[in-house]
Amino acid sequence: MVLLSRQKLIVGLLVILLLFIVPQTRGTTQQQEEGQISIVIDFSHDSTYTIAKRNFTEAVGFFANYPEYQVRILHDGELTAANLSRSHILVIPNPMTNYSASELDVISEYVGQGGSLFLLGDYQVTNRQIGNPLVVNLILQALFESRIQFTTVTGNDGTEGDAIIDSGAARILPYNIEVNSSYLIPHQNREAIIAGINSVIVAGGSLTTTYPDLIVSTGSETSQAIALNGEVIQDQPAWLAAFWIGNSRVVLCSSTTMFSDTACLATNQSWFQSEDNSVLWYNVFRWMSLEMVQDPSQIMIFFVALVLIVGFVVFAYSLWRTKRG
Question: Could you report the per-residue pLDDT of 101-132, keeping only the tens digit for each?
């Protein structure tokens, strides 16, 4: 009788487990179908390229082809923890005005808790200042990231940015830098960023670092970073980097222009549609979301199978003991 009661108890527990787990599995599967990766793009700090200005629509609209990504846009207002709630990736495209101390704290806490960050800057030339490296560097400082920064130069008018030019390009196209696959660095665990790319067209500033393992791409051999006064400050400068801060994945790109809707003179297309620029855009998000969100339904299915197998073995053993007795 004791063994028979034990069998009934085992069967009852298995039924209860199934009744609890199956609805959970269905729920997580539905959640996966609705979209797993939540992206927040913050245009609220006078970004040069935005949806409102109609010059960054292709990059944002690109996600309509990938239902696994959900995009939320911040057009104005202060960045708060509520803005980033339940999101996985924060994109800050070329802000021109400083984030407040409280906003920097929000970003720091977000990254500290595992949220990933895609931080973009851009170039400065004498007659056109598209980016502001001081603003994006303040974000890196808030993250206590001292290994790399967007390049700044101290000039007569204070601290300024720079621009990458191609000294071998035609005179009308010095800021259109073609970067082929030979300048993309296949670091271990970061190959997804450069997968399927033959070449991209870049217009931007440079990155400065003494840690070459952070760099994903440099300019071509004829590329140079120049200050606003025309002085060459770097040869074959870096413009794309990817690394970890704790569990958070961080990508720095010193060109927002390359993902914009504006016309690229080198290709007579939008920058986003030029060469493999759109592929790079997708690859960055793909790398930042790798292993970020696991499918809980798969874990549940494995757990259910394990419970059933163990339960069946115990039940069969109990039944064998009953018959033997």
Answer: 999 999 999 999 999 999 999 998 766 678 89
What is the rounded CA–CA span in Å between residue 233 and residue 66?
40
CATH superfamily of the 38-289 domain:
Class I glutamine amidotransferase (GATase) domain (3.40.50.880)
- Token pair of 199, please? 């070449």
- From CA 226, how far away is CA 127, in angstroms rounded? 14
DSSP alpha helix (H) spans, the chain: 2-34, 57-61, 101-112, 133-142, 191-194, 277-289, 296-324
Please report where in the chains the tokens 């009852």 appear, as a residue: 12
Helix and strand numbers, DSSP H then E, in the chain = 7, 20
All structural domains of the chain with their residue ranges: 2-29+297-324, 38-289
> What is the 8-class DSSP label of residue 254?
S
Backbone angles phi, psi at 215, to 5 degrees: -80, 135
Measured between alpha carbons, how far is 228 from 315 in angstroms, rounded to an integer?
A: 79
Q: In the structure encoding, which two tokens stand for residue 49, read together?
A: 């390229």
Exposure of 313 by Cβ count < 10 A (0-12 exposed, 13-18 middle, 19+ buried)? exposed
Kindly indicate the confidence band of residue 29, based on its pLDDT and cuts at 50, 70 and 90: very low
Decide the pairing of beta strands 116-120 and 89-93: parallel
Residues 6+ apart with CB under 8 A from 58: 259, 260, 261, 270, 272, 273, 278
Q: pTM of the predicted model, to two decimals?
A: 0.79
